[in-house]
Predict the 3D structure of the following.
Amino acid sequence: MAKHTLVALVEDKPGVLNRVASLFRRRGFNIESIAVGHTELPGVSRMTVVVDGTTALVEQVRKQLDKLIDVVRVSDITDESTVARELALIKVKAAPATRSEIIQIVDIFRANIVDVASDSVTVEVTGDEDKIDSLFRLLRGFGIKEIARTGRIAMTRGAAGLLTVEEGKPPREAPRAKRVKSTDEISNL
């Protein structure tokens, strides 16, 4: 099994995240990470989901996701040329004697110290998963108090992405219910 990155444009409505997560749950997939945020289009959010699975199983789930009413478009970008990043906040124990060493490590990783307290510092790091894992391993020796990670966000490289939606084109609408004719209309046929 391999990690797959699925990116979906979804309508920005209550319950969409639950429906997407439920589809993965019903198929027995463990979601490694899921990140959702607004896009450049009003009313449309971008969802990045990382799951473990075979290519065939992930493709089945992708097709089922594409059929959900609130999903505008979905693509597996695992094999595409992508830019992928993750954000992490790491709160590290920091005694006065160890602060300078922590600052040096943070500088090497081009990370930032975003909060300083009497007994800790909070480090913000952005990069691929390997970079974040490496910084985490180095800082673990000082004592990690808390960590928060966003999970992977990704997009394809180049001018036009796989998930671009034509400007001005509204998101896909749910099929409308057919109007039932009244008994008067039926009798007049």
Residues 167-189 have pLDDT under 50 and may be disordered. The first strand starts at residue 2 and ends at 11. The helical segments are 16-26, 55-67, 99-108, 129-140, 183-187.
